[in-house]
Structure formats: C-alpha cells, structure tokens
Design goal:
single chain; 728 residues; alpha+beta; Cytochrome Bc1 Complex, Chain A, domain 1; 3 domains
C-alpha cells in the first residue's frame, strides 16, 4: 500500500471511529443520568451535558526577512508533510481582454516544469517519491501545494520552491492547458445548473465584473507565454506569499529548510492591488434562459449578500440554518416535503471574505410547476419576517451549527488551512474560536433583525433556466422578463478580403465546380439525397464503426440514423430545431449541437454549390494551395455567416476539400478539414463516395457511401418529433 493510500485509509478509519463515538454518546451518558435522575421515557427527555470546549492547536507564525509569512503546525500522527502556499493574486486582477490568464498561469506554473527541471523530469522526480506538487489560481487567490513523505520532505520542498520561484512555462504545456480551457468553454452550456449559477452571478455582479465574467475563445487566444511570465513576475514575490507546513517535523528544523529554500528570494515591490468594486448590475425582475432540451426548470432567486466581517454575520449564519440548514429547515419542509415541488432546494445569505457574497434560493422543479415553485420560494423569503423564527427554531439551528463545529477542525491540516485563509484575508487568527462564541451568543431578536435586514423579496432577481413552453404561469407574472443569450461566441475567423477581382475569379471556379458535379440544371434540380454509408470514428478507445442512413432535404433538413455497437440513435435537424431519439427516449438537442448540425449541412459540397446566388452567399478567390503535392485552386465561401475554405481540382473542377473552424471531438474549436474522393455519377449527379476528416491535422473520421439515391420520395413524418409516450 502506498503512503497516500495508507493515509486515506487511516483518515477514513479515524472518521468512522468519531462517527461511532457520536452515535454512542447517548448510551455512554445514560448510566450517569440514571444514577441521579428519573430515567428518560422519550427521546426529548434525554439531557446531554454541555459540549466541551474544543482545544484548537495554534500554528507557529514566523515572518522571514523577505516578507514571506510561514506558519508551522506539527502533527506526528503519520510520517507525512504537507505544504500549502497562498499567493496574493487572483483572476479578479486580469485584464478584461485576457480573461483566462490567471487560470492558465496557475495550471502551467506546475505542469510547465522549472528552469532547472523540465516538466517530464519533474513528474518522474515526484512519482519516484510518491509526492505531489499542484498549483492554481482562483478568483481571489493563487495557491500551490506539496505533499511528501517525511524522509523526502527536504528535497521535495526544494522542488516546490523551484516551481514557485523559477517556472519555465513550457510552450507545449501552455498549449495543452489552453486546449483544455477551450474545451471547458465549448461545454459551458451542457449543464443546466452550471448555466443557472453562472448567469445568476452575471445578473448580480455584471457580466464584465471580475467576479462573474467568463473566458471566451477570443480572450484565451489573446494570451501568450510572455503574459504568463509577466504575471508570475508581478505577483509571485515572497512578500506576497503565506506558506503553511503541517505534518511530522520538528518546527525548528523545518523552518531552517524553508529559509534555505526561500530565504535568498529578494523581497518584491509593494503593489497597489485595489480590489474591484461591487455593485448591483441589473434591476429586479425575471431573467430567462430558454433551454428547450430540458423537461424541468432550474430557478434561482435573490440579490447580493454580505461579507464575513459584517457585525451581523453570526446572526445571519443562524438564520441561514433555519431557512435551509437541514431536513427540518423551512425550505426543505415546506417547498420539498409539504408542497412536493422539488427534490432539491436550498437558500442562504452568502458571504465572502473581502467582497459581498450572494443571497440566493435555488430549486429545480417540473416545467409545469415552475410558477408554483417561484411563488413557494418567495413565500418562504417573506415568511422569514412575516412569520419570524421561533425560539425553538433558534435553539435547533444553534445546536445544529455547534454540533457540527467539531468537523470544521477535525484535523490539523484543516486547522492550518483555516489559519492560512484568515492570514491571507486579514482576519484575526482566532476567528474559529470567535465563530463558536459568536454563534452561542446569537439571540432571537438578532436573527429576526437579520432576516429583515438581509432578505429583500421586493429586490429579487428571478432566473429561470428551462423550456419556454409548458409553464403553469407566464413568467411575466413575476415581473418584466429579460431573455438572456447564452450562445458561445465563436473564435474570430481569419477571413480574406473580398475584392471585385477575387469575386470574379471565384465565380469562374464555382461555375467549373457546378459543371464538374453535373451542370447547373442537375445541381439546382436536386431537392433531396438519401445515402447509406459506413463511417469510422477515431476515439480515445480506438476506432468505432458506425453505419449511417441519411436523408438530406435541402436546404435545412437532415435525418441521420446511426447504428453503433451499443445501439441505434436517430438525429433530426429541421430548420432551427433538432432532436435525438434513442434507447433513453426522445429529447431536444442542446443549441450548441443543433447549431453544429446546421453548419455541417451547409458545408456539404452540393449544399455549398446550391447556395450560390442566394442573398447571403459571398465568395472570393484565395491564393492556390495543394493537397498531397497536387495543386488546388482555393476560394473562400461565406453562407449565413459560416466561412468555409474550398479547395478544387484545377483540371476537373471538382471540390476536393473543405476546411473551416468548428468544434472538434473534445469540444474545443479548431480547424476541421474534409477531403473528398471517389466521385461517381448517379442520375447525372457526380458525387463523392469517400470522405476523410481531420481535426487540427489529426485523423478523426472516414466514411464510404454504399448507396446513393437522388431526389427520393420523402416521408415528411421522418422530420417530426415523436409525441411522448403516455405515462403508465
């Protein structure tokens, strides 16, 4: 068993023992009670002794000559040493045109190796010692962590210091991190709850606020290696770092090792890093994200919250517990249990260390109970003052918080982590002890006053993510409705300048391509194509063979029946709507997938030629290129805002290749290229029977047409979404 596994097992065992001890507490105390009191007959007559004072160990705090703060906490339970560094930086300091810079810097700080130890060498060094070094940058802080066996601590600490002080930011590792970030952008609309919480933050803080803005393809593309180097040089200075050590060491010896690793790092300049201002960005009302591939609504309601240093913080914490702190809380009891409107429901006045958090109430409900759920949440918010908390609720809430307090600091590593955060944000180091005393001292009047002060139903912003149809009440019932656009901006396309000369040459090339496909009469006379083909898709697990039966009705309808080893799936595109049917039933496709289907249909060679002469069709010639050493004529075609580069055989005029920027297999954008061959004539139409696809130069797919039918009879019902089966 390796050390990490051993440590995890030990922690699990320790947690189990603690849980059993808590369960046995009534049994262990019963004999003492029986000796002096009448035995309890019901559970509510059992009396427990007061909770004992919890002794929280205090780390030793030392400031090095260069300004680095070091905090040490010995724990000799296991032969392990952990180190955590907090760096005074954060994504909130990024320039608005390079959002994502902090994230990339934090990732590549570790993954990109150091000046003295390349990335792969660093990886091997750590693997040989069952050690780890990680790094990252969040909204309000940067962090780096280290874990090692006690015996390896000195040399791993030196490597840890090397990562913090001398990162190499290797270019290829930056590109890996950039690709991962682009994949995240591509998938940001896949999770309805993710959409809800992201958009709610932007409603409150503003989409341009550093506390709510998101990376885009454009801002990520604007970041280069030098930006990472400059960010590191600006923020990664010893006087901006708080380093914590916890584990099996002697503090004096550990401090000596820290001085050896960091002591000669010169103090950096003092920076004026004024925190971004926070102000409500959008007025009260209803905000709607239409997501028609769902059968339920995700609802968020609220406004801005508080900071943790607010004098009413403890009263707010107790109030939050009454509202949504347990299965017996108001939201859970009334919205979920009594009214049956939701499986999950929550709410609290949120707090951050140095900027306002968010008060929000959240639930998911069936589409047809959306209005009822909104009203239930608003009712509970109003009842926090109209039906103020009772003495019984106060007592239960305080007991719940205090009984769980032990789990907030049940390990020295958790305690040190808390101390580092308090130090970082300028809070008193005895904040944890103050928290318990503060909760114990909260009165009923203070909780009622906090509810009135920090919950304002008339100031609510209401966000609904879900279907537009099937709601029990119009959303305008609850205020003016503002639709939100969550479409993901495409990367800026590099397009050629359109000139009269370029358009004239493009017209000649297009005329040749039309002739090569059978002539204008044939091309324009095709209304539909039916094909059967065998496709091979390249996946991380190997090649996957798929049989595809398709019918394409020009200009914007496609039905594909895919037969895979694990079953069959049907995808249908009809105008601006798309759905998928399979073993799990029928569902609307997300907007991103339906848009991808439309773009692919528009870029079929026949579809491109049929679109010539339409109002939004623009073509211009490009400099010649080549394909496998063979010359190609090239032109740029833009249809409905989609730009495609087309390569044509200069002798036959046939379309040999189309290239365009789109999402690849992993979701990240890049250059997709489809190369056509094996042209055959069917009913006067000369059409490619073989296609090979690549993404960023790497093979991703291939297909061969086995059957082709021109202008088949079309069953219109094939493009209609099946009605849902009646519930049993």
């Amino acid at each position: 068993m390796n050390p990490t596994t051993n440590r995890t097992a030990f922690r699990c065992a320790r947690a189990a023992v603690a849980a059993i001890a808590l369960l046995l507490l009534p049994v262990l105390t019963a004999p003492a009670q029986a000796a002096t009191k009448t035995p309890a007959k019901t559970w509510d007559q059992i009396q427990f002794p007061p909770l004992p004072e919890q002794a929280v160990p205090k780390p030793e705090r030392v400031v090095l000559d260069n300004g680095m703060v070091v905090m040490l906490l010995e724990d000799h339970e296991l032969p392990l040493v952990d180190a955590t560094a907090f760096i005074h930086t954060g994504a909130r300091f990024e320039p608005s045109d390079k959002v994502g810079l902090a994230s990339l810097t934090g990732d590549v700080l570790r993954s990109g190796g150091t000046e003295s130890m390349p990335a792969e060498e660093l990886n091997e060094f750590l693997e040989d010692r069952a050690a780890s070094i990680e790094s990252g940058i969040g909204t309000t802080s940067g962090f780096a962590s280290m874990n090692a066996l006690k015996a390896d601590f000195p040399e791993v600490l030196r490597a840890f210091a090397d990562v913090l002080r001398h990162p190499a930011f290797e270019e290829d590792k930056l590109e890996v991190a950039r690709t991962q970030l682009r994949s995240t952008i591509a998938r940001q609309n896949d999770d309805p709850q993710g959409i809800a919480f992201r958009e709610f933050g932007q409603i409150l803080y503003g989409e341009d606020s550093p506390y709510a803005r998101d990376e885009t393809y454009e801002t990520v593309a604007a970041i280069d290696r030098q930006d990472l180097v400059d960010w590191h040089q600006r923020y990664y200075q010893p006087n901006r770092i708080i380093l914590g050590l916890v584990g099996d060491f002697d503090s004096e010896r550990a401090l000596s090792l820290v001085r050896d690793a960091f002591g000669d790092w010169p103090r950096g300049p003092e920076l004026d890093t004024e925190l971004p201002a926070v102000a409500i960005a959008n007025p009260p009302g209803v905000y709607r994200v239409a997501k028609n591939d769902m059968t339920q609504s995700n609802i968020l309601i609220g406004h801005l919250g508080i900071e943790k240093n607010n004098p009413d913080y403890y009263a707010v914490e107790v109030m939050n517990n009454i509202l949504s702190g347990s299965f017996a809380s108001r939201l859970f009891s009334n919205v979920r249990s009594a009214k049956g409107l939701a499986y999950a429901v929550s709410g609290s006045v949120g707090s951050n260390y140095d900027y306002p958090g968010v008060f929000r109430m959240f639930t998911t409900t069936k589409t047809e109970t959306t209005g009822a759920a909104i009203e239930a949440l608003i009712e509970e918010a109003r009842n926090m003052t109209a039906k103020p908390p009772t003495a019984e609720e106060l007592q239960k809430a305080k007991q719940s918080i205090l009984n769980s307090f032990v789990f907030e600091s049940d390990s020295t590593r958790e305690i040190l982590g808390q101390q580092l955060r308090y130090e970082y944000f300028g809070y008193p180091l005895d904040w944890l002890e103050r928290y318990r005393r503060g909760i114990e001292s909260v009165t009923l009047d203070e909780v009622r006053a906090a509810a009135a002060e920090y919950i304002h139903p008339d100031d609510f912003r209401i966000l609904v993510v879900g279907p537009e149809e099937g709601l029990d009440k119009p959303l305008s019932t609850y205020g003016p409705v503002t639709p939100l656009d969550i479409s993901i901006p495409e990367p800026p396309a590099e397009t050629a300048e359109v000139t009269e000369e370029g358009q004239a040459r493009a017209a000649e090339l297009l005329a040749g391509a039309v002739d090569a496909m059978g002539g204008a009469e044939v091309v324009d006379g095709v209304t539909a194509l039916r094909t059967r083909e065998v496709a091979t898709q390249t996946t991380p697990q190997g090649e996957l063979e798929v049989k595809v039966a398709s019918i394409q009705v020009f200009p914007d309808r496609v039905r594909q029946e895919l037969t895979l080893p694990m079953g069959s799936i049907t995808m249908v595109l009809s105008g601006d709507k798309a759905f998928m049917s399979g073993p799990m039933g029928t569902m609307d496709l997300p907007d991103s997938q339906s848009a991808a289907l439309r773009r692919t249909a528009l870029r079929d060679p026949l579809a491109l030629l049929k679109a010539r002469g339409t109002e939004d069709f623009v073509a211009t010639a490009l400099p010649p290129g080549e394909l496998d050493g063979t010359p190609l004529e090239r032109l740029q075609i833009e249809v409905a805002g989609n730009v495609t580069v087309v390569g044509l055989d200069p002798e036959s005029g046939r379309i040999r290749q189309v290239s365009y920027r789109d999402q690849g297999p992993g979701g990240a954008p890049g250059e997709l290229t489809r190369t056509f061959s094996d042209y055959r004539e069917i009913d006067g139409l000369t059409y490619p029977f073989a296609v090979v696809g690549t993404f960023e130069g790497e093979p991703v797919s291939s297909s061969k047409v086995e059957e082709l039918e021109v202008n088949p009879e079309v069953d219109e019902s094939a493009f209609e979404k099946p009605a849902p089966e009646p519930e049993q």
